Amino acid sequence: MIDLLPQHDTTSVRTLRSYCVGNPTPDKLDAICRGYRDDPQQHLFGIEEHEQVIGCTGIRCEAPSCAVVQCIAVLPEQRQQHVGISLIQSVCNRFALQQLIAETDQDAVDFYRRYGFTVTSLGEVYPGTERFLCVLQC
Question: Rounded to two decimals, what is the model's pTM?
């Protein structure tokens, strides 16, 4: 796992992060970049393969042993190869987390279930979109 903060605003990292952002407009991606740059509680990590970032996760540390997943994205051609799980394990270990929390939609909820997160429906948070709270006891 590598620290992506120094390259958080590169085209390749922005493209990767766009996979986990609803309506990834340039303005929205700029705002996300500012958050990683300006907030010391936000961290962005990635996994490289052959000098290419193939997956990334952004977290926000909420307490010494608790963090919230802000994004997790893997290149489409690298999915189903345990990249996302490796990112989660690395973040839990690096920060000695006891709890990792994520909020997601129907498209990604099975990823969290497979990894062992407890999943609770939050209902239709946005019109026509059910959201889920996912909690992992690390």
Answer: 0.86
